[in-house]
Each structure stands twice: as structure tokens, then as C-alpha cells.
Design goal:
Length: about 425
């Protein structure tokens, strides 16, 4: 029996080394596509799977490195490796919604055959791979570590980051068994510059949540510091810049309008939920989440105060929001604090417009706007300009010169001022 187990792992390791392994990627979004691209670049054949016909159509029309993409999940029997990159959102009550992971696991289970490696890449709570996926996959009668292999390896992609991408960002891998880890390491090794093995899937699952919780808590801390400085009449940016000159023991984080995207506002809640099931309340996570979520309200109150100083009410004022993506130089508006800022301003009766060079249209249940041009006229027409996202390709000098009133949540005008007084 042992000899057979060795053989299944050995066969897959050999297929990784000679690149004959067929790689299946389930979920071809922000995470799945770049990963597919790295496997293709390393010389593997890649078969993409998605439930969305539109996603598959756009890929098969030749706009990507995925040679073949399909909505036919029965074909999951073909790949030697199945990497699952499906969404892990929150429910309305901020509980994990693992329905996509479950659906993908069930599809894999229906097609599972001897010799396959299954890797979950989606961010999730510790225990998902072992408690949710393993029992389902073993219902087939196949045994993990012998017949098939199972691992968790979190994606760390940072959209818009010019330096760190899927290929050169070290990748953490945790297998269910030593054989699972060995096979997973062998498969990723040709595609990713550096791999970091950990002893279990739970450790790998927690690594990802620690990273995002670390960011959420530190952003929460500087956001609170911004409120503290405002009340004390001290410039928070000056304090942060000076603190950042300390060569050890300090890491610079910057305040802003809140957090956005599909990671930082969501992922820590996966851990908070898991810990609630163990009767433990994760206080840092909840506090940071609260502070970050309150920042749009804080900044809108600043806008109202500043307008008031000019003898104007928010109601009827024209407010131009600069930048609506959740962070600079990207076009993603998911969970963007700009959406809250716009909603809160509209609720106070302001007439809101926006400019974002990366986002031409903005639409949700309450908002239906299109980006307006950034000109001296559009700036001068606004009673207040609120800088929410500090995109690089924006003429901040023009804003400084033409806007009547600016509320700058990102300190974006500092570079203009520095240049002027240098
Ligand atoms: N976007 C990021 O920057 C980022 C970074 C690190 C980790 N993550 C994590 O990676 C995971 C995926 O995120 P994303 O941003 O790529 O999501 P996404 O929404 O961009 O893409 C997910 C894709 O999966 C498809 N899909 C859904 N259910 C499916 C199923 N059952 N079978 C096949 N395809 C299915 C969807 O149609 C979609 O195309 C999430 O857990 C997320 O938290 C995201």
C-alpha cells in the first residue's frame, strides 16, 4: 500500500518537473487569472474553469494566457492539479459565506480521481481545508496523502503594485500531509520565485488572515491617530513622517477615508467568526473594523464643518469627490470608502460629482454617476473638493490652484506644497 502511495506523489512530482502536469484553475478572477498566467509562463498547460459564461467567453476569445477555459466542471477530471480561487465574501451579518468554496469543492469531488492535487487559494478561516473540503473529498473513497493530495496556499496579490506580483511574491504552502506538501511545493516551484512551507493548512490559512488583520489594525490605529491629532490641533502627517525616521520598531501606515477592496475589510471577519464559535472575541479585529468603517462619516463631517466655516450648508452645495477606487492607481471600487463618502454627502443634500481617471462610471443601488473631466472650470464650480483616492496621474497642482476648498483625506496635496516651498 505504501509503495502505491509513494508512486502517486512521485508521478505528480515528476510531472511538475517535466511540466507535463495539466493545471486547472477554478475561478478566473483577480486571483485565478494571474496565477494561470504564471503556470503558463512556467511551461505548464492550463485549463481554466469558471461558472460565468461571460468570463470564459472573453478568455477563449484569446485575451489571456489561459489556452482553454470552460464552464463544464465535469472536465475537472482532466487536470492533474486543481487550484481553487473562488470568492469568499461575507454574508449581510458579516459571517463567512463559504458557499462558493463548497460549490467548487463539490464540483471537484464529483470529478476527483487518483493522482490529483487540490489546492485552495481563497482566503478563509482556519480549518476550512481540513473541516470542510477534506471530508467531502474523502467521501469518494480516495485517501488524502495517498490517492489524492490537498493543500492550502493563500494568494497574496496586491493589485496595482508595480514591484510585487504573483511570480515574485513568496507563496506560503500548507499540506494536509507531508506528501501533500511535497507535491504542492513541486507544482508551484517552477511558477513562483520563492515558496514558504508551513506545517499545516491551518497555519497557512492563518498566515493570510494575520497579514490582512495586521494591515486592518495598523490602519485603524493611524486613523484613530488622525482623529486624535485633529482634536489636538496637530498635523498627523508631520507626526507620522517624523515617527517613520525611527530606523527600528516602527512601521509607517497612513490614515485615510477608510479601507476597501475585497480583502482588508472582509478577511479579518472570517477569523472573528471562527473564534466566536470557540467562545473567544477577537477584540483588535472588531475595534479596527469599527474605526475604519467610521472614517467616511468622520471625513464627511469635516466637509460639513469646512463648508459651514464658509457660511455654506451641505444641503445644496456642490461637492467634487476626487478618486473613487478603493486605493490609488487601480480601477476597483469594491467596498471603496468613496461609495460611503458619496452616499453620506448625498444624504446631507449635497450635489455630488466625481473624477477618477481609472473609473469612468460608478453605479450601485444608490449611486449612478459618471466621471467628470478635471479642469479649472469643474474645480472652480465645486464648493468643496474631497480627495478620497490619491491616484498618481492627477494634476494636484491644478486642484491646489483652482479649488475653492479642499478636504484632503490622503495628504495628496503635500507633494505640490513641498515642491512649491522647496
Ligand atoms: N482580489 C485580490 O486582491 C485578492 C488578493 C488575495 C486573495 N484574494 C482572495 O482570493 C479569492 C478570489 O478572489 P478574486 O478577487 O479573484 O475574486 P473574483 O470575484 O475576481 O473571481 C472569482 C471568480 O470565480 C468564479 N466562480 C465563482 N464560483 C465558482 C465556482 N463554483 N466554480 C468556478 N468558478 C467560480 C466567478 O465567476 C469569478 O470569475 C477570494 O477568497 C479573495 O478573498 C483576493
Amino acid at each position: 500500500m505504501k509503495a502505491t502511495a509513494q508512486t502517486a506523489a512521485d508521478v505528480l512530482v515528476a510531472k511538475a518537473q517535466d511540466r507535463s502536469a495539466l493545471i486547472g484553475i477554478v475561478g478566473l478572477g483577480y486571483v485565478g487569472l494571474p496565477l494561470a498566467m504564471e503556470f503558463a509562463r512556467a511551461g505548464f498547460r492550463v485549463l481554466g474553469f469558471d461558472v460565468s459564461q461571460a468570463v470564459v467567453d472573453s478568455l477563449t476569445q484569446g485575451r489571456s494566457h489561459v489556452q482553454d477555459a470552460t464552464t463544464d466542471l465535469a472536465r475537472l477530471r482532466e487536470p492533474d492539479v486543481v487550484s481553487i480561487c473562488v470568492p469568499t465574501p461575507l454574508s449581510k451579518t458579516k459571517d463567512p459565506d463559504v458557499s462558493y468554496v463548497l460549490a467548487a469543492t463539490n464540483a471537484v469531488k464529483r470529478a476527483l480521481r487518483r493522482g490529483q492535487l487540490i489546492v485552495l487559494e481563497s482566503t478563509t478561516y482556519p480549518g476550512t481545508t481540513r473541516e470542510l473540503m477534506l471530508p467531502a473529498l474523502e467521501e469518494t473513497g480516495l485517501k488524502v496523502g495517498e490517492d489524492f493530495f490537498l493543500a492550502f496556499s493563500p494568494e497574496r496579490v496586491d493589485p496595482g503594485n508595480p514591484k510585487w506580483n504573483t511570480h515574485n511574491t513568496p507563496k506560503v504552502v500548507g499540506g494536509l500531509t507531508a506528501a501533500c506538501r511535497r507535491v504542492a511545493m513541486a507544482i508551484y516551484e517552477p511558477a513562483i520565485e520563492r515558496l514558504v512551507a508551513v506545517s499545516s493548512p491551518e497555519a497557512a490559512e492563518l498566515v493570510k488572515i494575520l497579514e490582512n488583520t495586521f494591515r486592518s489594525v495598523n490602519i485603524g490605529l493611524v486613523n484613530e491617530m488622525a482623529i486624535v491629532c485633529d482634536k489636538l490641533g496637530v498635523d498627523v502627517w508631520e507626526v507620522i513622517e517624523a515617527a517613520a525616521t525611527k530606523p527600528f520598531g516602527f512601521m509607517k501606515f497612513t490614515p485615510g477615508p477608510g479601507v476597501g477592496g475585497h480583502c482588508i475589510p472582509l478577511d479579518p471577519h472570517y477569523l472573528a467568526w471562527k473564534m466566536r464559535t470557540l467562545n473567544y472575541r477577537t477584540r483588535f479585529i472588531e475595534l479596527a473594523g469599527e474605526i475604519n468603517a467610521e472614517m467616511p462619516e468622520y471625513w464627511v463631517a469635516r466637509v460639513v464643518d469646512r463648508l459651514n466655516e464658509q457660511g455654506r450648508a451641505a444641503r445644496g452645495s456642490k461637492v467634487l469627490v476626487m478618486g473613487v477606487a478603493y486605493k490609488k492607481d487601480i480601477d476597483d471600487v469594491r467596498e471603496s470608502p468613496a461609495l460611503d463618502v458619496i452616499r453620506l454627502l448625498q444624504r446631507r443634500g449635497a450635489a455630488v460629482s466625481y473624477h477618477d481617471p481609472h473609473v469612468r462610471k460608478l453605479k450601485d443601488e444608490a449611486i449612478d454617476l459618471a466621471s467628470i473631466p478635471l479642469t479649472s472650470e469643474t474645480l472652480a464650480a465645486a464648493d468643496c473638493v474631497v480627495i478620497v483616492t490619491d491616484h498618481s496621474d492627477v494634476d494636484y497642482g491644478l486642484i491646489e490652484r483652482c479649488a475653492r476648498l479642499v478636504v484632503d483625506t490622503r495628504n495628496a496635496l503635500a507633494s505640490v506644497r513641498r515642491a512649491r516651498y522647496a
